[in-house]
Amino acid sequence: MHNTLDIVIIGAGPIGLAAGIEAKRKGLNYLIIDKGCLVNSIFNYPLNMTFFSTADRLEIGGIPFTSVHAKPSRSEALEYYRRVAEVEQLQINLFEEVTGVLTQESGLYEVHTSKGTYTTTNIIIAIGFYGIPNLLHVPGEDLPKVKHYYFDPHYYYKQKVLVVGANNSSADVALETWRKGADVTMVVREPTLGRIKYWTKPDLENRIEEGSIKAYFQASITDIREKEVDIETLDGVITIENDFVMAMTGYQPDFSFLEKIGVQLTNDYKRYPLYNRETMETNLKNVFLAGVICGGMDTHVWFIENSREHATRIVDYIAAKGLAGA
After folding, report:
1. Rounded to 5 degrees, what are φ and ψ at 110?
2. Considering the entire predicted model, what is its pTM?
3. Architecture of domain 135-247
4. What is the block-wise mean pLDDT of the chain (326 residues), using blocks of 10 residues?
5. 3-state DSSP call for residue 55?
């Protein structure tokens, strides 16, 4: 049996941790819950990933983040956020999935999880978007050779790799696997490359220009088979030999979870959740959004560096308005 909490924070990413820090400093009784590991999205980033942001812009709770280089790596970020959680002694339940939220007659919320039930006055939803990939919706996408996540380039040595997409993740996969001995082809829907880190884009452009990496622009995959892939190009459909398809087509938030608990979303493709821009409160009383989830399908709007303030804004509002439970 659990006592009533002031705040349940759903999501143990950087913004969820930031909210926990603010709640603790305000003397509120809180709990952070995550279905995965600590900062699960960052853990699932590619092994050699480097952040676009500098270390100071990834800091939470005013705790310094020191990095060997100007742009910190995935491993440095994991170390930093783990140390923050330890130093702040944050109350976190990991590998515990929230399965439902019910409203009691008293106005309190029951948060049901895979391991228990918690009663709380306020809920902060700080889930990310890395758990649900955007699908290609083509025949053969369910084959084991099709990957929506990428970790280590060594795995693709001497393999024929097709990379789908034109942004940062696609560029990293193409360059890293090529440098580890893969035969790399890119399929890009647009006529040009997209949002790519400024230190990576010239490298990829040069590899394409010299022919080391083959690229089809204004093209799309139409069929995936065990050893081949069909590509619709400006010159018609071509078939190439293939061992792996790396579908770096982006990810989306868990809209079904928001809808399940009653958070309103726009009906268009963007699926923007409705919330008060000043308080971050949704259409559900005392239920707040923080971080990338606020942008709906526009997952390139909110980052750690510009949504850290959500945590402070929400917790300050809860404390100032006396919304926390007695």
Report:
1. -105, 120
2. 0.87
3. 3-Layer(bba) Sandwich (3.50)
4. 85 97 96 96 89 93 93 95 98 97 93 97 91 92 96 97 94 97 97 90 96 97 98 97 96 90 90 94 96 85 87 95 57
5. helix
